[in-house]
Amino acid sequence: MNCPKCGGLLIPICYGRPSKEGSEKIARGELYLGGCGMEYPNAPTHSCQNFPECSIQVLDYNSDLWKSRDAMRRSLAAKRAGR
Ligand SMILES: [Zn+2]
């Protein structure tokens, strides 16, 4: 998948604290650290490799990244509701 604006690679965005493997990917430019916005339903899943020079970040509802985040959000919401 490539950026529609500059043609650069779109890389997955990692939220929260990255794993050791995640940190290595971030150092290699294969993963973008997005902060702690995971619980926001509209948080993007992929970022242009040239971000922030290129402003493109996308939300891909068909990606495994989105599906796992959505599942995590649902389980968190269920936990809160059960309190
Ligand atoms: Zn771009």
Structure description:
The chain is of the alpha+beta class and 83 residues long. The chain has one domain. It is built from two helices and four strands, in the order βαβββα. Strands 2-1-3-4 form a four-stranded mixed beta sheet, with helices on one face. The protein is globular, with a radius of gyration of 14 Å. The mean pLDDT is 90. The structure holds zinc ion.
Secondary structure elements and their pairing?
Blueprint: E1 10-14, H1 20-28, E2 32-33, E3 46-48, E4 57-58, H2 64-81
Parallel strand pairs: 1-2
Antiparallel strand pairs: 1-3, 3-4
The structure holds zinc ion.
Strand order of the largest sheet: 2-1-3-4
Largest sheet: 4 strands, mixed
Rg over CA atoms, rounded to whole Å, is 14 Å
Task: Compute the number of strand runs.
Answer: 4
Q: Any idea what the shape is?
A: globular
Low-confidence stretches: none
- Separation, N- and C-terminal Cα atoms: 41 Å
Named once each, the bound ligands are: zinc ion
Secondary-structure element series: EHEEEH
* Approximate strand percentage: 5-15%
Q: Structural class, please? A: alpha+beta
